[in-house]
């Protein structure tokens, strides 16, 4: 996406040849899109539409006329949503920060972090639910554990990218600790803080999702009301959540943090006493095939034969992950200018920001249900939901990045500014975000089992319901290994330029 | 909503039975709004009848209620047919105390979108082959287990061989909404949820209607852990049973929603257990 002037003098004037960064990224993007187009015939994209309008009208009227009175103790649900997100993030920070310091040096730490990141928050919650019940412990660990893995990775990358000069200026013999405290931490501090803030917004969304499995956050009532078609009540809860996210810059202020922490801790109390016998039964028996524990090898083979067909499930997971990622890229490309200060007027920007907030804060499951009604059961609703949700999230971050850029060509028209000035500057960052997000998208394919898309997550969810924890755990291990493999592959394949973005805090 | 200090039950036991709170959970088959408000009234009623502190624990799914029961985080639960069987298998000694008066002869409906052209029939029509069908929740007795059983019996084929596409909507109300919208051609649904939706005018019977009903089978039940007598005093199980059977306040009963409760026992649910084993949902 470099201006064409730069390539005009190239030896071969073909319009995608050349070695400039922009052209390499453009080729890379087109390859990704081509791969998705090639694989589309393998996806089940049948469209069935009969009479969705009655139900869609009821949903729309629910959002337009929310029934505030129908929500049971809304303030407590809001408070718990914030408390879980806040303490979950802090827990992740507590474990993730020390791991970040070891991240570059220890393969064990890197693999461990990739492993905990690979399992969706909801599945962590389902695991802990078996031991800690519906308690604060379940909710906090479900957030803190995967977030520790994410913090470790991102903080390590921030540390890698800080300038080396201050470090090298120190006299020889300075201890590792002093070097870190005086020459590294101050340079990375603002980025750490900015990233933590962004992670907190993610934690708020995850905290709502935890309600879907029964923890008493906003999602508890939201899921029930939506599932049972009480859309006015669901509308009220969704509005509460949108307002919570939109007002984050005001209430999520640094000076309010201690107050929020203390208030949150009070809401989360009382901390449940952990029953060690339950914990031991779970880790020593429940999650292992009975035949394995009995040392019965033939029985183990029978057990394996009854595990759902892995090939098809892995195929569906990867296909949906790839299509979702490419879809998210296209959505992000189309939507980011809507919320960016360099385009449109105050009214269009407000609408654009509202749209992005709506798309990124509405749980994917609900977007998917909307498309399920419209388009019928297939991979298509899941694809659209993943693309729109993640695309809007990337667009939001890219717009924030572009807002920080001062244009060098103030006279350029909107289109010119988009094509020649801003897009070339934000695009490497956008691709980097996409590669980060691809990991999340792959994880999210798991929670769209409702649509009958037989991904790995569909079977994990099913086996948790059948209380076959051994099968669920085995499938979780397969999912985690798959995510680690995809992560390694994408790190090898992604263009080097896309790994370096101006502001890693946006990831 | 309070966080539930649930796993504390074992520790409390160690401190002496006097400090014990008797906890129960219940998931109604429809309208799960204001669960705490509604079931706290049931808890108050049980408290006056049992002379112990009673607390309601809200859960989201049958799986979660069985886990809570197994882990002693609740001692009494209003289960579906299948979740009751799962729970009694996992907690030896636990007993089914009572069922709703509707539950002795429960049934499921097969509903169809009008575009299928299917009419109400006494036997399952051959024409449903290769249509699309959605069940309710995966572990629902009336939304999945029994309908699947009768479909297999009639066609001698698993649902995914019989139908072009099989889904799990997760909920009876949602099954009705999705078949009404034509997203799925057929749906399997709990008869009482359907009847209530039709009575309230929440469903357009020009677009979706019942085409077949299953033979009767036993469903929802109250199940209590076997160790409650030791913890709450001799005869506690009988007192709980009496309290449930004598519950006659329409407001309390409407929460389930049932007309009243009648006695039940474990053996009543043997057919459910057999079917679940046959379908591979139990082992």
From TrEMBL, chain B:
Cellular component, GO annotation: ATP-binding cassette (ABC) transporter complex
Source species, domain of life: Bacteria
InterPro entries registered for this protein in UniProt: ABC_peri_PhnD-like (IPR030836), PhnD (IPR005770)
Keyword annotations of the record: Signal
Record Pfam families: Phosphonate-bd
Gene3D superfamilies: Periplasmic binding protein-like II
Leader sequence segment: 1-19
Entry keyword Cytoplasm: no
Transmembrane region(s): none
A GO BP entry: transmembrane transport
Membership in a protein family: Belongs to the phosphate/phosphite/phosphonate binding protein family.
PANTHER family linked to this entry: PHOSPHONATES-BINDING PERIPLASMIC PROTEIN (PTHR35841:SF1)
UniProt name for this protein: Putative selenate ABC transporter substrate-binding protein
């Amino acid at each position: 996406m470099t201006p064409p002037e730069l390539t005009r003098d190239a030896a071969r004037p073909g319009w995608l040849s050349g070695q400039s960064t922009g052209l390499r990224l453009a080729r890379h993007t087109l390859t990704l899109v081509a791969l998705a187009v090639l694989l589309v015939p393998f996806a089940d994209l049948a469209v069935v539409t009969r009479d969705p309008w009655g139900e869609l009208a009821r949903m729309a009227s629910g959002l337009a006329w929310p029934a505030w009175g129908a929500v049971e103790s809304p303030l407590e649900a809001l408070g718990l949503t914030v408390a879980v997100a806040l303490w979950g993030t802090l827990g992740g920070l507590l474990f993730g920060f020390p791991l970040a310091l070891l991240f570059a040096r220890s393969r064990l730490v890197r693999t461990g972090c990739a492993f905990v990141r690979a399992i969706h928050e909801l599945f962590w919650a389902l695991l802990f639910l078996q031991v800690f019940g519906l308690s604060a412990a379940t909710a906090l660990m479900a957030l803190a554990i995967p977030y520790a893995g994410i913090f470790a990775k991102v903080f390590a990358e921030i540390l890698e990218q800080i300038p080396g000069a201050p470090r090298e200026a120190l006299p020889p013999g300075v201890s590792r600790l002093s070097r870190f405290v005086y020459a590294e931490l101050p340079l990375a501090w603002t980025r750490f803080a900015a990233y933590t803030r962004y992670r907190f917004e993610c934690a708020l969304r995850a905290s709502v999702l935890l309600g879907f499995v029964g923890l008493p956050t906003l999602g508890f009532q939201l899921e029930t009301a939506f599932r049972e078609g009480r859309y006015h009540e669901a509308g009220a809860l969704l509005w509460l959540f949108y307002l919570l996210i939109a007002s984050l810059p005001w209430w999520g202020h640094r000076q309010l943090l201690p107050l929020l922490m203390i208030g949150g801790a009070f809401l989360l109390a009382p901390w449940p006493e952990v029953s060690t016998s339950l914990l031991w039964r779970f880790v020593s028996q429940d999650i292992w095939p009975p035949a394995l524990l009995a040392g019965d090898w033939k029985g183990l083979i029978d057990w394996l034969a009854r595990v759902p067909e892995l090939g098809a499930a892995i195929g569906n997971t990867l296909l949906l992950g790839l299509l979702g990622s490419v879809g998210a890229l296209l959505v992000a490309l189309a939507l980011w200018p809507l919320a960016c200060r360099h385009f449109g007027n105050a009214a269009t920007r407000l609408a654009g920001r509202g749209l992005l907030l709506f798309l990124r804060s509405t749980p994917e499951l609900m977007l998917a249900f909307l498309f399920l009604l419209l388009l019928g059961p297939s991979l298509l609703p899941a694809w659209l939901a993943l693309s729109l949700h993640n695309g809007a999230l990337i667009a939001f971050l890219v717009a924030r990045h572009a807002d920080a850029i001062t244009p060098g060509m103030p006279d350029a028209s909107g289109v010119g500014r988009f094509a020649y000035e801003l897009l070339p500057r934000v695009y490497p960052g956008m691709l980097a975000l996409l590669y980060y997000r691809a990991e999340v998208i792959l994880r999210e394919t798991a929670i769209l089992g409702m649509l009958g898309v037989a991904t790995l997550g569909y079977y994990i969810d099913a086996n948790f319901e059948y209380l076959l924890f051994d099968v669920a755990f085995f499938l979780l291990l397969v999912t985690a290994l798959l995510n680690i493999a995809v992560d390694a592959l994408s790190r090898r394949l992604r263009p080097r330029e896309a790994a370096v973005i101006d502001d890693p805090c946006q990831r | 909503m309070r966080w539930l200090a649930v796993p504390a039950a074992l520790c409390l036991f160690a401190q002496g039975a006097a400090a014990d709170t008797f906890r129960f959970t219940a998931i109604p088959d429809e309208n799960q709004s204001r669960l705490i408000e509604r079931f706290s009234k049931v808890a108050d009623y049980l408290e006056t009848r049992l002379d112990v502190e009673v607390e309601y624990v809200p859960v989201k799914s049958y799986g979660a209620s069985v886990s809570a029961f197994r882990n002693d985080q609740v001692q009494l639960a209003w289960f579906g047919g299948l979740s009751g069987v799962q729970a009694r298998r996992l907690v030896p000694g636990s007993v089914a105390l009572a069922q709703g008066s509707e539950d002795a002869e429960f049934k499921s409906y097969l509903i169809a979108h009008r575009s299928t052209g299917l009419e109400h029939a006494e036997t399952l029509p051959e024409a449903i082959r290769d249509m699309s069908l959605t069940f309710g929740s995966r572990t629902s007795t009336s939304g999945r287990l029994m309908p699947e059983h009768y479909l297999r019996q009639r066609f001698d084929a698993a649902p995914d061989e019989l139908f072009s596409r099989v889904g799990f909507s997760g909920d009876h109300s949602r099954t009705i909404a999705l078949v009404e919208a034509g997203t799925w051609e057929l749906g399997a649904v709990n008869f009482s949820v359907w009847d209530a939706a039709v009575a309230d005018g929440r469903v357009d019977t020009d677009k979706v209607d019942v085409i077949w009903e299953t033979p009767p089978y036993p469903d929802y039940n109250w199940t209590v852990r076997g160790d409650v007598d030791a913890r709450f005093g001799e005869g506690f199980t009988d007192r709980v049973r009496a309290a449930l059977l004598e519950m006659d306040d329409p407001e309390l009963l409407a929460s389930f929603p049932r007309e009243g409760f009648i006695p039940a026992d474990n053996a009543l649910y043997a057919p459910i257990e057999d079917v679940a084993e046959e379908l591979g949902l139990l082992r």
